[in-house]
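quick one before i forget lol
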Amino acid sequence: MLVATFNVNGVNGRLPVLLRWLEERRPDIVCLQELKAPDEKFPIKEIEKAGYGAIWHGQKSWNGVAILAMGDAPEETRRGLLGDKNDLHARYIEAAVKEIVVGCLYLPNGNPYPGPKFDYKLKWFERLTKLANVLQAADVPVILAGDYNVMPTKLDVYKPERWTDDALFRIEVREAYANLVKQGWVDAIRHLHPSERIYTFWDYFRNAYVRNAGLRIDHFLLNPLIAPRLKAAGVDKHVRGWEKASDHAPTWIELGPIKRTRTTKRA
């Protein structure tokens, strides 16, 4: 089973890129971020024509998340995070799909630091961590996938010394990510590639993609019930080089089959 996450940076403006990649890769489950479209503008007809069912949580011009499933309709289990009734940002959606609970998230950027946007980021992280703890206790296979806007270590950024005071690399943010992982989550890419420089994002400026001046900010966290199924993980970097591409590339994991316990029938 192939599960992917892709910050599309505008689902309608980048729709040809998304559809081309879906046809090329044929992932079973896809988490999308930064739809930048209200619910009624989500291109569900084109998505269904490509062979996918979908749920989505849109927002005009900003944010927005969606979960796609090949030949299936995800069953929505949660929309948004608890803990702040005034937070109307479309940043989290969750579904049961193909016997897995999938949480698709778009964590706040937080820049500039210091300031209210950075404070909001840390509070959102706290709310996500509380939900993640609940999901850990649910005794179901869970994947938390999306754009975390965090480079967890120096290995995840091309020149860490330049990012010390950026909200994606501030020590407070990296500690928040580490505390989340300590609940028992497995960072899929880093688990399989512990010392390799792997990036998922390249800025549009300063020829970043050609120079491979990237960041790893799109992550998969797997709970202990699904982590043993992890077989491979990577980034479709070439998609970032397509015409009118997002500044993110699709990131993916491959899961092995579900291991079921055999039962012996008695006469």
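fyi The domain at 2-255 is CATH 3.60.10.10 (Deoxyribonuclease I; Chain A).
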